[in-house]
Write a structure and sequence with these properties.
Elements lengths: L3 H5 L7 H16 L1 H18 L2 H23 L3 E3 L6 H21 L3 H22 L3 E3 L3 H37 L1
Antiparallel strand pairs: 1-2
Helix pairs in contact: 2-3, 2-5, 3-5, 4-5, 4-7, 6-7
């Protein structure tokens, strides 16, 4: 019989439970960042600790790439935050999303076309939804937001898929060279 942690806190067989955890963390950080940040940060650290090195490196690559993208888009005026350039809850949200992208969503999307479609639709909708739910995020009105965010997110997720493969290959080659 599976224990609670095996069912809910494991990515061995990701499914609806992990999707619920992702959504709960996303909603918590968007709606009540002050109260949810410690919980999300603790869970994020616990999950990262369980990952293999190539998975950790892929997660950190996506996390940093996402923050860089958001920084560039914020500086361009596509969206803005009411407090700082990139608030703490967004930094945590990028780690949270990076974890669940690599361990859940990416596994459900076997082809690059599906990854790109997920980015084209899911990325802009997440920001639009966040802006509707939170007073600290304001997005630019009009088509420009959607026309910039959709391809940016498609490219980001395709980049993430590629970096994940690169890290896996790097460690595979490294272990082969050490054995020889």
């Amino acid at each position: 019989m599976n224990t609670f942690s095996q069912q809910w806190l494991s990515f061995a067989e990701p499914g609806w439970r992990q999707l619920l955890i992702f959504k709960a963390g996303w909603l918590g950080l968007v709606l009540q960042p002050l109260y949810s940040a410690a919980i999300v940060a603790s869970l994020l650290l616990w999950f990262i600790w369980q990952l293999k090195l190539p998975q950790r490196q892929a997660l950190l690559t996506l996390w940093a790439s996402g923050l860089l993208l958001d920084l560039l888009l914020t500086l361009s005026g596509l969206f803005q935050f009411d407090t700082t350039l990139l608030p703490y809850w967004l930094v945590l949200l990028w780690g949270w999303f990076s974890l669940f992208w690599l361990m859940l969503f990416s596994r459900w999307l076997p082809s690059p076309l599906l990854v790109a479609l997920f980015g084209l639709v899911g990325g802009p909708l997440a920001y639009w939804g966040g802006a509707q739910l939170s007073s600290s995020l304001q997005i630019m009105d009009g088509a420009e937001f959607w026309l910039v965010m959709a391809p940016a997110w498609a490219a980001l997720l395709l980049w993430s898929r590629q970096t994940e493969a690169w890290w896996q290959q790097y460690h595979l080659n490294r272990s082969r060279n050490h054995v020889s």
